[in-house]
Amino acid sequence: MSKVKVLIVDDSVLIRKVLSEMFATETRIEVVGTASDPFIAREKIKQLNPDVITLDVEMPKMDGITFLKNLMRLRPMPVVMISTLTQQGAPVTLEALELGAVDYVGKPSNHDSASLAQYRDVIIEKVLAAATANVKRLEAQSQRKIDPSIKKPAPSVSRMKLRTDYIIAVGASTGGTEAIREFLMTMPPDSPPMVITQHIPPVFSTSFAERMNRLFELTVLEASNGDRLMPGHVYIAPGDKHLALSRSGTGGYSCKVYSGDPVNRHMPSVEVLFNSVAELCRGRAVGVMLTGMGADGAKAMVEMKNTGCFTIIQDEETSVVWGMPGAVFKLGGADKVLPLPKIGDNIIQFLQKGTAKAR
Question: Fewest beta carbons within 10 Å, which of 37, 54, 172, 259?
């Protein structure tokens, strides 16, 4: 198997050195070059033909977002953004994902050996996953024009009223922020409550929920402990806490948001959310697994299916990375495998029937 060729684009000499040293510890990765600004990077891409680029958001001469726009228009390829994981940096990074970046990671902030080792493992995993990303999907994503200042009207469902005594539970990781946006775009305002776990840092989950709330008629919010689940509402797990369901005193459900040990190396974990749905809903739920690397939530989705829930996974062709959905597929946990644009319509049809799984 050939090595993944990486080009590091960052104006900081220190960051270029640190990343180069980290990648040198991984036999599956070869750093073919570095660049201190996008103009140098442009020439090195032509010369070196890298498989993946790590791209700094803030650089002189041309910022990372402008360079990413040009890159995805002229030569689409997997990009991992190196961003500052702060509230101020979150909107820019989310914009980069919207423009076609595969993933992002913060700049190394702690320089003790344990923190650097953990950071090295994360960035190596993300670069290797990016090398397998669906470039056609990224290219299509980069070509969409989105104006976040214009609220998109939700689709109307006039044929039959949807059942709202169900829960829709969604899991996602790499490529998930845009997949969630496309999924929510297809859901009407009378949808059942939706709970979502997306692998995302805490400051980003707040910005992501706010961005989704501005875009749609649905009410989208970052989940808080004790929030009662209501129709037409979407609850997104905070980036540093698990989200699960609990029984509400009124007979419905509420959010259980708590800190704990990572599950499958993640907090929030899709496994935690889906296990709680399988245990409490006993079939009165729809599970959706969207694009993402790894296998978090796969076993729990099998359990959801075994307890009578309707389970859907995103297909490989429309996924940025078919890791989590693919893991569900291998375990036999999917009732349906669908392209992303068809998932919402299929759920609507199921909720209109309301009794048997739509097949």
Answer: 259
d(CA 342, CA 336) in angstroms, rounded, equals 11
Question: Do 196 and 237 meet the contact criterion of CB atoms below 8 Å apart?
Answer: yes
* Catalytic annotation, pick one of 51, 199, 242, 315: 199
d(CA 341, CA 149): 23
What are the tens digits of pLDDT across the range 264-300? 999 999 999 999 999 999 899 999 999 999 999 999 9
Q: Name the active-site residue from 51, 227, 296, 315.
A: 296
Where residue 154 falls among pLDDT bands split at 50, 70, 90? low
**Per-residue pLDDT at 179 exceeds 70:** yes
Residue 287, both tokens: 């599970």
pTM of the predicted structure, to 2 decimals: 0.92
Task: Find the mean pLDDT for residues 194-218.
Answer: 93
Are 137 and 325 spatial neighbours (Cβ–Cβ below 8 Å)?
Answer: no
Strands (E) located in 218-357: 219-222, 233-236, 242-247, 253-258, 285-289, 310-314, 336-338
CB burial of residue 259 (10 Å; 0-12, 13-18, 19+): exposed
Secondary structure (3-state) at 9: strand
Calpha distance 54→68 (Å, rounded): 11
DSSP β-bridge partners for residue 44: none
- Interval 325-356: pLDDT, tens: 999 999 999 999 999 999 999 999 999 875 44
| Catalytic-residue membership of 296 | yes
What pLDDT sits at residue 152?
58
From 36, 83, 173, 207, the catalytic residue:
173
Q: Which residues of 260-282 are buried (b: 16+ CB within 10 A; e: fewer)?
A: eeebbebbbbbbbbbbbbbebbe
